[in-house]
């Protein structure tokens, strides 16, 4: 294993990398030309205006030397904004998300101090490793539990410490859960009037031979909620229409591109080939071609729009039902409507931009079958994902490529290229798989039929967490593929498993330290640099942007990708908890990660990210339960490790701890979870009463009328200008901010892909 | 292992025992003097009147020879009553309970036929056992899977059959769940107006410095359910008062006893000693003594009653809140009231006689701690209960007794007594434990803080089921104590456990066949004979009964003891499912058990049992899930068994089956469970609307006023006559029917003890 010095050198290198990233960032962000990349949030808020419009050099490159001297300023600036203002500025989701890092600091700083004061001397002052003459060891090992001789009574110190660590973690978790539940309730209570406060999503409306869906919904709620029902909005199956609009937008981008090209070089009319990917077919004038295509698609779209609006079959058996008061909606969302629990299912409506429209109309039985199949698929994905990758790897070698594409043979046979490919190919299938994994998991979650983007993200995060737990954590500790592991575990006794894993834990400390430095430190520094959006913005800015509006669209503020980042943070919690009693040397690296990530993400949340929706921190129960899982794993692994160290009399103490931890989790769940899933009537009543007193003449029906119309129909107002463009192609588009938020969501999924 | 003939002989003997029991029952039930033992239900319903009052011989012994010829009549009579009438007569709980036996028949009759047609020939026509010359085997083994050679392709037939069996079981379970959900909804919908339909139990009312509990409840619900709140009833801590009343009743029994004694033999005044258990102390006149004691206790009771009614500290932070409509109550029961989920907890109120008053006031955190401790205690009880019993057994031997009680030495040393005690003692500690077990489990459930008798019974049943599963089923198959088993299982790989158990399954068929005959057949026949109530009634009738009312009290109709009997039925389901693919010879015995038990319990429900409460079959989800557990266990054990038979290629098919089964269970849960735990608003609205139309002037407040007063205060009306009795001891007591139902509940718990 590596010595302390080796670790020091590696830490130096990785810190340097991170530092260089930060330097580059600090310089790039000062250039006005990059302003939209590093401060998009302020543009979207309308506080910052584009500096490029006037066009002088000063507006592109920052020439003020004083600015460069203060380039570290962003860090204190990021920390300066107080939390209430942050919630106001970026929403509760973001504010709570960065509290996860803060929680990491709160948990691990005291644990690190304690571990270094107590455990390091206890481990260091033994000679076990020195006495074993045939074993090579390093200073690092002398700091770990490996240096304590078997059967030593010093293990009681470790037991005591894991009790202290566990109770400290639980105490902090309890406090945090309480704080965040309060924040959420306060946030919900102080929110402005919003349509989702009055609205319930009703799914599985039964079909009625005599009535349309709309009439049926109306009659049902008039009868069963006579004092509270106000109005409803049926949902349309506009999936095909949405695809058409999507296609048209892409064509429109191409049109703009060629128009720009023509403008810049009017001597040459741009042309394209009409065939597959522009490689084959007839060569035509590009601008005319795209203009014609767009107008064709527009007609098709109009027809489809008409069809959806008039065809009763396009109405799906789901509706957004609104009530006269928040109280009425809270009641309807929490109660069962009929004796058949597969029809008239009600749940609190997600906010309009959070709705995932495609999943509104899945019948009950189908939904159950889908969830079963996805669960089975997830199991195979987690444990057997290496099989298809190994197959692809065995096919995708040089000989295979030469066989399929013989004309590439001379190129491949060139020596440098050959060695490059041979070194590169084996890993590429795995790398591609890992890049695509979050998208795949999101796809699986969509199949499961959740109806809001926020719940889809939460489900994907839960799947990704399982994958990381098995393949990154367990997979790194126990050698061999997941498939071999599962086979081995099945043939081991349950008491053996923590032993096998536990014994390997101290030996893997070096590996995880470098993992934390590479993935954690450098990864976070890469996040703030925003390389992909940087490149994309400059490409778009060069080829597609004609107006201020276009430039706003070219911005890619991105958002916190909960489904990807949260499970990764969980790995650090897990590592910290597992290594705290075993090899405390790992802890400072975890602490640095949390501190650095906290500053970086606070900066990003303030200046960059634009959230797609606001769920009011409803993801916190998931975060909490996953840290608890990490805690229980750490306790079981220490139990396994100590049982090989002839410290048998400590076993009862170590068995009691996970039981207490699980009970604590159940207690927290009962105590706080309802704040995240239920809607107290008292709070609803207070808001209703206040509102009635303040605005006795409020026309709620008008307020709610269009709230839950499919965005594609709301688009009516902003799609029209595009149609106009066909006839006046030089006129600037007038897309409103709604379009902006739609674009964000589509690019959010691109980010999912590349994350 | 036993041969077919041995089994035949054993079956003959057990059938004969059962037959003798039935004959005795058939004769006893015809005697008018036993009428109140075998037909108490009809007396309680007021349909049958006591035949003893006139006193002739004919009224005591039945002399009509024709009646004796038709003594089998009770069986067809028991089957004749149609189900709707049965529900009307005995309640839904009872009607659904006997459907469990019917479900057993529905599942196992076709399985038995199929197993005998398909599996028996497949097993029989092998020669594996005959070829193994050093193994003794019997005809019985030739019928089982043991006779199929390792690696045979005949195992595919067994795989096919377990699929057929599983799907058939699931199909029947699904249909039954559906039927019972419908029955429950219909039952609830057709019920008469009852207080619990309008009432919600509110627990954990927070304390308020300025308001009493009653005012606080009133204000909270007036504000938060302004349109629906009607009234409320606070709950009192009357536990001490209840104890006093209980004690007085016992003293009163003694008074009656001595009065009767004196009446029959006026020459001798009965006297007692006042010391411990009447063994020491001053000798006084018994009648005067008890009269004085009762009047003393009555005064104490009055003081306590006054104290409870006037002392604000006697009001506990819980209340029964009633609403103007069923809709309002359904809403309140299903929603969360405040943002703090540990206060103002609402749940649908149990019906008044179902309330378990002592548990209404447990704070939230304490409740959580209690449940955790009970869970830990249950774990130790299930796995380590043999330890204290072994200790008791080692102490309670002859030498130990002689040491403690040396004066018994000459008696014990007598040869016959000595051998009897030596044969008897080792088992007695275990036997006493097993008899006390249900009471112990009920006590643990009470600690968990459930607030209704029905939920207490369900929780106890669930605990008892776990105990039977581990100690009767697993304990009989795998030799050794549960402690040894758990140690062994922990040191085996998870894949080994089904193997170890699975391999032993065919070998234990004979054991379980005799178990079924002794416990099942003879046990059921014993149930119909009602030996304990028979003896108790005649004792009471001789010594305590003076009036018709007293005689009615001396009856012990008992009730279906769900907490004890249901887990035992589950053992038969489990045995049937486990042995169906392995040793089909066991199935006919199971079928006979279910058929016999069905007839017997239908008779008992019609003629004997008097239920303490009506929960509307809310126990069905528990029954369903336990049969599902049995099904999964049977599948895993066959998987284990086949994996030792070199039938490896069948494994994937056997792994898929439990997954499908678990999914099916989740599907059923989602589809039906809500009918048992939630309260659809539509149904509430229908009943409300009908009621409003039929009785527009209904004074609901008056109807609900006294519904949820602690029974001890309602007792005010019937306790008074007892006070009068003190001055006129010869006047008959006038206890009303409420007293009757209270007595049933206290004797029901005696039954728990002896069951």
From TrEMBL, chains A, B:
CC per GO annotation: plasma membrane
UniProt feature, compositional bias: Polar residues: 746-755
Keyword Transport: yes
Domain CSC1/OSCA1-like cytosolic per the UniProt entry, residue ranges: 197-359
Domain called CSC1/OSCA1-like 7TM region: residue spans: 370-642
GO molecular function, one term: calcium-activated cation channel activity
Pfam families: PHM7_cyt (PF14703), RSN1_7TM (PF02714), RSN1_TM (PF13967)
Keyword Transmembrane: yes
Keywords noted in UniProt: Calcium, Ion channel, Ion transport, Membrane, Transmembrane, Transmembrane helix, Transport
Protein location: Membrane
Topology of this chain in the membrane: Multi-pass membrane protein
Region annotation (Disordered) ranges: 732-755
Annotated CSC1/OSCA1-like N-terminal transmembrane domain residues: 7-176
Transmembrane segments annotated in the record for this chain: 6-28, 100-122, 155-174, 372-396, 416-443, 464-483, 512-539, 623-644, 650-668
Family designation: Belongs to the CSC1 (TC 1.A.17) family.
Name this protein carries in UniProt: ERD (Early-responsive to dehydration stress) family protein
Species of origin: Heracleum sosnowskyi
Top-level taxonomy: Eukaryota, Viridiplantae, Streptophyta, Embryophyta, Tracheophyta
């Amino acid at each position: 294993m590596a010595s302390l010095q080796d670790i020091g050198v590696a830490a130096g290198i990785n810190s340097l990398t991170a530092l260089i990233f930060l330097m580059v960032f600090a310089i790039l962000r000062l250039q006005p030309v990059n302003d939209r990349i590093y401060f998009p949030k302020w543009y979207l808020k309308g506080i910052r205006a584009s500096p490029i419009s006037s066009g002088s050099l000063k507006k592109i490159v920052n020439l003020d030397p004083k600015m460069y001297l203060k380039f570290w300023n962003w860090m204190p600036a990021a920390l300066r904004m107080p939390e209430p203002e942050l919630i106001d500025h970026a929403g509760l989701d973001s504010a709570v998300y960065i509290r996860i890092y803060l929680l990491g600091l709160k948990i691990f700083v005291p644990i690190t101090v304690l571990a270094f004061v107590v455990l390091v001397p206890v481990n260091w002052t033994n000679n076990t490793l020195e006495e074993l003459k045939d074993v090579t060891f390093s200073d690092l090992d002398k700091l770990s539990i490996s240096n304590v001789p078997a059967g030593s009574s010093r293990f009681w110190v470790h037991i005591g410490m894991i009790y202290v660590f566990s109770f400290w973690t639980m105490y902090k978790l309890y406090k945090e859960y309480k704080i965040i539940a309060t924040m959420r309730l306060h946030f919900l209570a102080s929110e402005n009037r919003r349509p989702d406060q009055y609205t319930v999503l009703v799914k599985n409306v039964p079909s009625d031979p005599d009535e349309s869906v709309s009439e049926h919904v109306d009659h049902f709620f008039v009868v069963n909620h006579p004092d509270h029902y106000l109005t409803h909005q049926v949902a349309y199956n506009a999936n095909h229409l949405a695809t058409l609009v999507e296609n048209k937008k892409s064509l429109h981008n191409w049109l703009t591109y060629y128009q720009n090209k023509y403008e810049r070089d009017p001597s040459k009319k741009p042309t394209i080939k009409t065939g597959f990917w522009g490689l084959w077919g007839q060569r035509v004038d590009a601008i005319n071609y795209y203009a014609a295509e767009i107008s064709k698609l527009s007609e098709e779209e109009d027809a489809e729009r008409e069809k959806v609006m008039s065809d009763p079959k396009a109405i799906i058996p789901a509706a957004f039902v609104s009530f006269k008061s928040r109280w009425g909606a809270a009641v309807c969302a929490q109660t069962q409507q009929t004796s058949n629990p597969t029809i008239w299912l009600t749940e609190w409506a997600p906010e309009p931009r959070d709705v995932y429209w495609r999943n509104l109309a899945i019948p009950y039985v189908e939904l159950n079958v889908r969830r079963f199949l996805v669960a089975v698929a997830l199991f195979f994905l987690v444990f057997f994902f290496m099989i298809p990758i190994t197959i692809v790897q065995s096919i995708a070698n040089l000989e295979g490529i030469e066989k399929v594409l013989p004309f590439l043979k001379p190129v491949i046979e060139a020596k440098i290229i050959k060695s490059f490919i041979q070194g590169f190919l084996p890993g590429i299938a795995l790398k591609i798989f890992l890049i695509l994994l979050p998208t795949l998991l999101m796809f699986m979650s969509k199949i499961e039929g959740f109806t809001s983007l926020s719940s889809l993200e939460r489900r994907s995060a839960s799947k990704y967490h399982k994958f990381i737990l098995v393949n990154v954590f367990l997979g790194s500790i126990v050698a061999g593929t997941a498939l071999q592991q599962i086979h081995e575990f099945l043939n081991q006794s349950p008491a053996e498993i923590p032993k096998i894993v536990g014994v390997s834990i101290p030996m893997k400390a070096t590996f995880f330290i470098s993992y934390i430095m590479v993935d954690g430190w450098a990864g976070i520094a890469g996040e703030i640099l925003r390389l992909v959006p940087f490149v994309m913005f400059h490409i778009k800015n060069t080829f597609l942007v004609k107006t201020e509006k276009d430039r706003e669209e070219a911005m890619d503020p991105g958002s916190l990708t909960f489904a990807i980042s949260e499970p990764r943070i969980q790995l650090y919690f897990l590592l910290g908890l597992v290594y705290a009693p075993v090899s405390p040397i790992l802890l400072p690296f975890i602490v640095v990660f949390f501190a650095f990530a906290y500053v970086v993400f606070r900066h990003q949340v303030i200046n960059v990210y634009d959230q797609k929706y606001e769920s009011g921190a409803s993801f916190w129960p998931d975060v909490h339960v996953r840290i608890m899982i990490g805690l229980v794993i750490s306790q079981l692994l220490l139990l396994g490790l100590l049982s090989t160290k002839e410290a048998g009399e400590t076993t009862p103490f170590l068995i009691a701890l996970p039981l207490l931890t699980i009970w604590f989790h159940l207690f927290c769940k009962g105590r706080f979870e309802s704040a995240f899933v239920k809607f107290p009537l008292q709070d609803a009543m207070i808001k209703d009463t206040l509102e009635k007193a303040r605005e006795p003449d409020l026309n709620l029906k008008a307020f709610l009328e269009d709230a839950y119309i499919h965005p594609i129909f709301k688009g009516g107002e902003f799609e029209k200008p595009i149609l106009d463009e066909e006839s006046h192609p030089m006129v600037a588009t007038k897309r409103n901010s709604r379009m902006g938020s739609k674009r964000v969501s589509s690019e959010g999924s691109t980010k999912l892909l590349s994350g």
